[in-house]
Amino acid sequence: QVQLVESGGGLVQPGGSLRLSCAASGSILKINEMGWYRRPPGNQRELVARIGSGGLTNYADYVKGRFTISRDFAKGTVSLQMNSLEPEDTAVYYCNAYILAGQRWDDYWGQGTQVTVSS
Known about the structure:
The chain is mainly β. The protein has strands at 2-7, 10-12, 18-26, 30-39, 46-52, 57-59, 67-72, 77-82, 91-101, 104-109, 113-117.
């Protein structure tokens, strides 16, 4: 019924930049929140950044000043601009959204996109 698809991952050198994008599609009535999470190698998934319908944002401490999240919920999209990337940012990045579809709210997840920061 609802699908999230990420794009923009890849290989980048330390200090470089990438922009991730996510698009939600399906029978969407309302989006309350969208965000980005990541799973570093050997670790569990953790919050990177999130943004609500009113534009209020929440960033993990380790990305403040480097990453910027933006959204257009009317289009069902969210983006993550990542600057000054470090090897520690290497992870699979997942798009997440809290969406009203049909008669209930649910969390939805994308398939993930690999970000590798290496020289």
